């Protein structure tokens, strides 16, 4: 996120300097030489503001301050899982990273529809999601370093093992959040069966 902010600032400064050069070239009055570059900087800075989005959810469309706060916390981690995951050559690790990304999106979409369940997902966002993104990032750094050795190979194996454990944790979290809906389905089926039996 910090690198994006730096890029955004640099882009705005360059646009502002270009505007300043043009105002000087056309020998505009001093107030215009000052105001136009400032306006250009502010405009480019605002336009290039990144859209925080998780799956189909945009931060600007999210209801509730608590959900917005959770999305801000999770956005970078989910982005790491997706972008870094896609770069990874190893099929197993790439598959695990992208599965975790998709599970994270499903959990967020469910929370948006069921804000009363946000409390159940705090540990998932603050610990599991952050750990998953960290492991994927460390794996990519290990591969990029081109360092070989027993300890590096052991670290890679440990990361794969950790990501496998996390996929189960993500699935359990989603199942826990869906518990009410699962019970409703079971109840609906029982009622349907009873209704059919009573009509025989």
Low-confidence stretches: none
Helix content: over 70%
Order of strands in the sheet with most strands:
1-2
How many domains in all? 2
Taking all Cα atoms into account, the compactness measure Rg is 25 Å
> Biggest sheet: strands, sense, closure?
2 strands, antiparallel
N→C terminal distance: 63 Å
Number of strands: 2
Structural class, by secondary structure, is mainly alpha
Shape descriptor? flat
Mean pLDDT across the residues is 82
- The secondary-structure element order is HHEEHHHHH
With helices defined by DSSP (H or I, 4 residues minimum), what is the helix count?
7
Strand content: under 5%
Describe this protein's structure.
The chain is mainly α and 200 residues long. The protein has two domains: 2-47; 65-188. Helix content is 80%, strand content 2%. It has a two-stranded antiparallel sheet. Strand 1 (53-54) and strand 2 form a beta hairpin. Helix 3 packs parallel to helix 5 (122-145) and helix 4 (91-113) runs antiparallel to helix 5 (122-145). The mean pLDDT is 82.
């Amino acid at each position: 996120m910090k690198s994006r902010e730096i890029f955004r600032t640099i882009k705005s400064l360059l646009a502002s300097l270009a505007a300043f050069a043009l105002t000087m070239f056309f020998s505009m009055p001093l107030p215009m030489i000052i105001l136009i570059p400032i306006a250009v900087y502010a405009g480019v800075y605002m336009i290039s503001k990144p859209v925080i989005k998780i799956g189909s959810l945009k931060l600007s469309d999210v209801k509730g301050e608590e959900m917005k706060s959770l999305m801000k916390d999770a956005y970078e981690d989910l982005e790491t899982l997706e972008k870094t995951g896609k770069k990874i050559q190893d099929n197993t690790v790439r598959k695990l990273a992208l599965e975790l990304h998709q599970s994270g999106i499903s959990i967020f979409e469910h929370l948006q529809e069921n804000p009363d369940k946000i409390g159940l997902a705090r540990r998932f966002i603050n610990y599991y999601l952050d750990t998953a993104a960290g492991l994927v990032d460390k794996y990519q750094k290990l591969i990029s370093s081109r360092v070989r050795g027993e300890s590096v190979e052991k670290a890679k194996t440990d990361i794969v093992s950790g990501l496998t454990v996390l996929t189960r944790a993500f699935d359990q979290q989603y199942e826990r959040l869906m518990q009410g809906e699962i019970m409703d389905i079971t109840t609906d089926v029982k009622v349907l069966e009873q209704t059919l039996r009573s009509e025989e």
